[in-house]
Design brief:
With 290 residues, chain A is mainly alpha-helical. Chain A is 74% helix and 3% strand. In chain A, helix 2 crosses helix 9. In chain B, helix 2 packs antiparallel against helix 11 and helix 3 crosses helix 11. The two termini of chain B are 16 Å apart. Classes of the chains: A mainly alpha (290), B mainly alpha (348), C alpha/beta (231).
């Protein structure tokens, strides 16, 4: 019974963490697949979503925050597309990535300036504040909700990519940008859609993270590093790869903190090394080799 | 024209001399030697200790920036863990003396060689991957080193978060610990090291090896089809830039007499990257000048706690407006002016 | 009204120039063959229409609209569709999805999924297989079908007979005739001269980056022209 419980707990906690990571990493992977650009400011967007969620929740409650924060972030994503990604289209990928890094740092600093340097706690909404009995243990309802959200966004993403026209075009551009262009796919319009969706999801993840982790000044750096590791392990342009990588990452992180707490912080890095040594192009079957 | 002699006008602009490229080269060398000598001596007499300290720190950061810039411009690879070598070699130096009772010189050599070996092994593993994976792996390696320095189990060696005070008795290369710590005496050392490392980078850039690296960056597949190995050149380049970081890291620990987890943290790595971008990554002068600029700017802004903001702003401004950096921009400006003036001379 | 007009085009890759002052005009509904040695610049010409090359100078117009300064998808939206060299079928999409990609231009016309299936029934049979699981000949049909889905005014074909058996080349020729009958123009780059003779009305010879000869397809077999093609 004990062992059952520990394993169930491990899996549940891994899934909860992975849910957040999937929401964030898939957004990052989509932009990367589409434009070959890594948005280093993605962690800062997540942090903005969290702090905005905190403020909005103070006025209107958790559920309002969950709706409004992503909307605001979607607008910011549109701004990112028009003011940064499009004008810099001709530049090398390293340069654009570094610009997003700089902007991310500035955004992070602005948030620290406005909100101060301490962590903020966010309460789960009353409807999700309780616990549920599972495998003889008491498990927070909020985390079940988190897992459901993660699963839901995963499914929504998969359905969109698989069955919608824009999803088809996104997949095509991710696999072979030249051919997609020659067929008449308007990568700019797709990019606008993908960037704003990616930002919105970062907003959702930020709001959800509040009651689960916390809202603190270092969260942007931690998260962007995690997401980058996941996207790299997942392989270029592969959303499926990113999702599997996120699950793997979540498990390794949680298991690490349980069994080897001193070395837990290193677990993601070790994972990165191990995976890339076995499969240098990542897990997923992404871009066709040039 | 005066009777009988024909004057060949050098139409490639700016030159005061008719003909001979070797004469021009000689003039450049002479100017460089003057500049070197002046820069080594004059500041120690003219500038305050405070300025010399910041300046020397800037030169060290600049040398670290040079290692980042070289790999970025020649091989298209970004290193995010440069500080782990820069600070790590300091830790090795300290531990070799305190725990293994090596003499200062032996400890220096030990630390230097261990880092080279580390770079060779790490490079062998990661140089094969795509640029993004490479960058993340250098970050991972750097972060792993940062964390291990803080591990409880290694506290005996590293003193964890407290850091290690690094002094030695006797002399290394004829200088005592006190000499190295003295700002006036250290400046010429840092200045000379910057010139030597900068020249080494320049020589490699101009060599056939440098050309091969750049060709691999442009079209890796074509190089492979043409029979060039793409693995070994990149590995060699990686070890080379780590050697640069190795040297300036040792100078850093000799000068500061102290090493802590901050010395090898991510912020030092990012500072080096920013310094490289500010100065310009295409040549040797750029990153070193960028390091000095960054050090002084940080001193100004750091007082108000705005260092990070400065970093972010610098990255955005320089990439968008001045992609070649300050030095690169100046060179480009000079070139354009000389082309214009030679055009004017031709039409006159 | 001309379909495609190229004026004095200098284009290439990176620092190297491949096309050196190329002029070409293709009228509406015309079928033209582009012949010449490997490396003469034939594929470069086609790629230039889609912004895949570096254009040093010159103009490309589709109808009245200039496209050399527009993003790569402009040509497709104006009615130019391509079956690229090597087919370039997307590996992680099904046959049907590859075809649907051709609808990205939003152009309407006679060519629908149904019409393409009628022309190439095997594509219907393998509609849900991965695109790259088809044989060479089937992939070529898929590449052409994908281009047709855009309802182009001008269909570009880059080495369509590559890797195909004579029987399949025969099928290909007949398919092309049907496409031409339906009203589209064709620009075909091809080494296989008998296919060229069946698919085109006139030919142009490309050598070292510019047009060195041209004429109606009946004259293609003259000795001078064969000499020019070998240059």
């Amino acid at each position: 019974m004990r062992a059952h419980g520990v394993i169930a707990l491990l899996i549940a906690n891994s899934l909860a963490l992975a849910s957040l990571l999937i929401m964030l990493s898939s957004g990052l992977a989509l932009i990367y697949g589409l434009r070959d650009v890594i948005n280093f400011g993605h962690g800062a967007l997540y942090m903005l979503g969290a702090y905005l969620g905190y403020s909005i929740a103070l006025i209107g409650g958790f559920w309002t925050a969950l709706v409004v924060s992503p909307l605001l972030l979607a607008l910011l994503g549109i701004a990112l597309e028009y003011l940064v990604l499009r004008p810099l289209r001709g530049r090398s990928h390293i340069e654009v990535a570094l610009v997003t890094l700089g902007l991310g740092i500035i955004l992070g600093q602005a948030l620290i300036f406005v909100y101060g340097g301490e962590a903020r706690g966010v309460d789960a909404p009353p409807a999700l504040a309780g616990s549920v009995r599972m495998f003889g243990l008491s498990y927070p309802l909020y985390r079940i909700f988190l897992i459901a959200m993660g699963l839901g966004s995963c499914t929504a993403l998969a359905l969109w990519l698989r069955f919608s026209t824009s999803g088809l075009y996104v997949r095509a551009v991710s696999q072979d940008p030249s051919v997609a262009r020659m067929m008449g796919v308007n990568a700019d319009r797709l990019s606008l859609l993908v960037t704003s969706l990616s930002a919105a999801f970062a907003g959702v993840a930020g709001v959800l993270a509040g009651p689960y982790l916390s809202v603190d000044p270092g969260m942007d750096v931690t998260m962007i590093v995690n997401c980058l590791i996941i996207v790299v392990i997942g392989g270029t342009g592969s959303i499926a790869g990113a999702i599997i990588a996120a699950l793997l990452f979540g498990f390794v992180q949680v298991a690490g903190s349980v069994f080897l707490p001193d070395l837990a912080a290193l677990a993601p890095y070790v994972l990165l090394f191990v995976v890339l040594l076995i499969a240098p192009r990542g897990i997923g079957r992404g871009r066709a080799p040039a | 024209m005066s009777g009988g002699t024909t004057t060949r006008v050098d139409a490639r602009g700016g030159s005061l001399f008719a003909g001979s490229a070797s004469v021009r080269a000689l003039v450049y060398v002479a100017l460089a030697a003057l500049l070197f000598g002046f820069g080594a001596i004059a500041p120690t007499h003219l500038a305050s200790e405070f300025v010399l300290r910041i300046g020397a720190g800037g030169l060290l950061l600049g040398m670290l920036a040079l290692s980042v810039a070289f790999l970025m411009s020649q091989a298209g690879l970004v290193v995010l863990g440069a500080a782990s070598v820069y600070g790590g070699v300091g830790y090795l130096f300290a531990i070799a003396m305190s725990k293994w009772d090596l003499s200062p010189t032996a400890a220096l050599l030990f630390a230097f060689c261990t880092v080279i070996a580390y770079a060779a092994v790490l490079g062998a593993l990661i140089v094969r991957t795509n640029p993004l994976a490479f960058m993340m792996l250098t970050l991972a390696a750097g972060e792993m080193i940062s964390h291990s320095v803080m591990l409880e189990g290694l506290r005996d060696y590293t003193s964890g978060a407290d850091g290690l005070v690094v002094t030695f008795k006797g002399a290394v290369f004829g200088m005592t610990a006190a000499d190295f710590a003295n700002a006036t005496q250290f400046w010429p050392i840092a200045w000379s090291a910057a010139w030597i490392l900068g020249f080494a980078a320049f020589a490699v850039r101009r060599s056939r090896f440098g050309a091969i690296l750049r060709a691999i960056q442009e079209n890796e597949e074509r190089m492979r089809f043409s029979g060039f190995g793409t693995y070994l050149p990149r590995l060699a380049a990686f070890v080379f830039v780590n050697a640069i970081a190795d040297v300036c890291g040792l100078l850093h620990v000799l000068n500061s007499g102290f090493v802590s987890p901050e010395s090898l943290g991510l912020s030092v790595s990012t500072n080096a990257l920013v310094a490289a971008l500010v100065g310009g990554v295409a040549n040797s002068t750029g990153p070193i000048a960028g390091g000095v600029l960054f050090a002084f700017a940080q001193d100004q802004f750091g007082a108000h706690g705005f260092t990070q903001l400065l970093t972010g702003l610098a990255v955005v401004v320089f990439i968008v407006l001045l992609p070649r950096g300050v030095i690169g921009g100046l060179i480009e400006g000079a070139r354009r002016r000389s082309v214009l003036s030679s055009k004017r001379r031709r039409t006159a | 009204m001309t379909s495609l007009e190229i004026r004095s085009l200098y284009a290439g890759y990176g620092a190297s120039m491949v096309l050196r002052g190329l002029d070409l005009t293709i009228g509406e509904g015309e079928s033209v063959a582009l012949v010449g040695r490997n490396g003469a610049g034939k594929s470069t010409l086609l790629m230039s229409l889609f912004g895949e090359t570096r254009i040093f100078s010159g103009e490309i117009r589709v109808g009245e609209t200039r496209i050399d300064d527009r993003p790569g998808y402009a040509a497709a939206k104006l009615g130019i569709a391509i079956s690229p060299q090597g087919r370039r079928i997307l590996p992680n999409l099904t046959v049907k999805e590859n075809l649907l990609l051709g609808r990205a231009t939003g152009r309407s016309g006679a060519w629908s999924l149904r019409a393409v299936y009628d022309l190439f029934p095997v594509l219907n049979e393998r509609a849900n297989s991965a695109g790259t699981m088809l044989s060479g000949g089937q992939q070529q049909m898929l590449a052409i079908g994908r281009a047709l889905m855009a309802n182009p005014d001008l269909l570009l074909l880059d080495e369509p007979s590559e890797g195909l058996s004579p029987v399949l080349i025969d099928d290909l020729a007949r398919g092309l005739n049907e496409i031409r009958r339906a009203g589209a123009g064709v620009l075909i780059v091809e080494q296989h001269l008998s296919l060229v003779k069946r698919a085109a009305d006139r030919f142009v010879i490309l050598s070292k980056g510019r047009i060195v000869g041209a004429g109606p397809i009946s004259e293609m077999d003259s000795r001078e022209n064969h000499a020019l093609m070998a240059l």
